[in-house]
Amino acid sequence: MDNLFLKYMRERSGKRKSTGPNFHAPGPVITISRDYGCPGRRIARKLAETLSEKNLRMGRETEWKWISKEIIEESARELKLSPTLIQDLSDYRTRGFFENLALFFSDEFYPGDVKIKNTIARFIYNAAAEGHVVIVGRAAESITKNFEKSLHIKLQAPMEWRAEQVATAYGMSLADAKKEALEMDKRRSQFRNYFEKERPDIDFFDMFFNVATLSDEEIVEAIIILTETRGFV
């Protein structure tokens, strides 16, 4: 599996002219990307639960799981760093002068940007290869795009709607919430562009949902229908 991952990374980085890896992984895997303020984790959890329940009703014991924060936690464990630091580094979050100074004089290993991203990508790849998993964020749509059994979802909503969600969740003004949403969108785009080379979303996603006009249940039901069509369940 690691050899396949390395092959993928070589082709993605442009060392060989290719539109992507030409291998088949077990899967199935569903990825969910989202604009900041959209309920990616909530929908992923509901989707995994619904797929597991459907398998159970059909007499199958296969359980679907969903992962989000585990991506950071496992990557941090491998790199021997705190999850908070990995989160900040992968999100391009600016650290203060004294924080960086403390890191410089500490015994904590401080890996390069590429190593962090590749560690995250390897965890996502391996989790997806095991199959029956919904993965939230971290450019998973790019890392697993060429898996034979994969489905890639993007959750979107107008900025004003997203700002209202962020303001309510974190107790901030609408102006501050909008600023936060714009900043987080920028950081996520920076992370994704490492893998996607600024290619348009349509190159990676199969379905787009406006979470401002659709309920969680409607979105999950639509995804379930497509997973049935593709033989995921």
Describe the structure.
This protein has about 230 residues and is of the alpha/beta class. The chain has helices at about 1-10, 40-55, 70-80, 85-90, 95-105, 115-130, 140-145, 160-170, 175-195, 215-230, and strands at about 30-35, 65, 135, 150-155, 205-210. A 5-stranded parallel sheet has the order 2-3-1-4-5, with helices on both faces. About 35% of the residues are buried.
Task: Write the topology of this structure.
Elements: H1 2-12, E1 29-34, H2 40-57, E2 65-67, H3 69-79, H4 83-90, H5 97-104, H6 113-130, E3 133-136, H7 140-143, E4 150-156, H8 159-170, H9 174-196, E5 207-210, H10 216-229
Parallel strand pairs: 1-3, 1-4, 2-3, 4-5
Helix pairs in contact: 2-10, 3-4, 3-6, 8-9
**Alpha-carbon distance between the termini?**
24 Å
Share of helical residues: 40-55%
The H-and-E topology, N to C, reads as HEHEHHHHEHEHHEH
- In total, the number of strands is 5
Structural class of the secondary elements?
A: alpha/beta
Could you give a short account of the major beta sheet?
A: 5 strands, parallel
Spans of at least 5 consecutive residues whose pLDDT stays below 50 are 15-25, 97-107
Shape: globular
Percent in strands: 5-15%
Strand order of the largest sheet: 2-3-1-4-5
Radius of gyration: 18 Å
The number of distinct helices, counting runs of at least 4 residues, comes to 10
In short:
Helices cover 55% and strands 10% of the residues. The protein has 233 residues and is α/β, with parallel strands linked by helices.
